[in-house]
């Protein structure tokens, strides 16, 4: 049994208006967990004034992106680069 609920948006489909394709998950469970943990750590460092100023704001924004993509299971940069860290089972992406 997993500690995290990997299916945060079970009925949410990601639709790309340019290509008229449904966006498929491309992040594995470990990749998603690492993104969420790094995002939370960066946000913690910002809110406790370990990082501040412009760098702090940039890293806080980056942490938000990491947390959102971690929960969604889909990364637009991975799609552009053709990277997929989720496991395939019989040619199909496993549901998280």
Q: How would you describe this protein?
A:
- The longest helix has 20 residues, at 53-72.
- A hairpin with a 2-residue loop joins strand 3 and strand 4 (92-93).
- Strands 1-2 form a two-stranded antiparallel ribbon.
- The chain is elongated and about 45 Å long.
- The chain has one domain.
- 47% of the residues lie in helices and 10% in strands.
- It is mainly alpha-helical.
How does the SSE layout of this entry go?
Layout: E1 14-16, E2 21-23, H1 29-47, H2 53-72, H3 76-81, E3 88-89, E4 92-93
Antiparallel strand pairs: 1-2, 3-4
Helix pairs in contact: 1-2
SSE class: mainly alpha
What's the alpha carbon Rg, rounded to whole Å?
A: 15 Å
* Residues in helices, as a percent range: 40-55%
Strand content: 5-15%
Unreliable spans are 1-6
3D shape: elongated
What can be said about the biggest beta sheet?
2 strands, antiparallel
Number of strands: 4
Total domains, how many? 1
Please give the alpha-carbon distance between the first and last residues. Answer: 12 Å
Helix and strand sequence = EEHHHEE
User: How many helices?
Assistant: 3
Mean pLDDT: 79
Report strand order across the widest sheet.
1-2
Task: Describe the structure concisely for a colleague.
With 96 residues, the protein is mostly helical. The protein is built from 3 helices and 4 strands. It has a two-stranded antiparallel sheet. The protein has a two-stranded antiparallel sheet with strand order 3-4.
Keywords for this entry:
96 residues; mainly alpha; two-stranded antiparallel sheet; 4 strands; 47% helix; 10% strand
């Amino acid at each position: 049994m997993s500690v995290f609920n990997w299916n945060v948006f079970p009925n949410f489909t990601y639709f790309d208006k340019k290509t008229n394709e449904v966006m498929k998950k491309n992040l594995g469970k470990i990749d998603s967990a690492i993104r969420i943990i790094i995002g939370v750590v960066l946000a913690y460092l910002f809110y406790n004034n370990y990082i501040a100023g412009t760098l702090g704001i940039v890293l806080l924004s980056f942490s938000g992106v990491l947390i959102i993509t971690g929960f969604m299971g889909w990364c637009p940069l991975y799609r552009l680069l053709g990277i997929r860290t989720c496991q395939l089972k019989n040619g199909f992406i496993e549901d998280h």
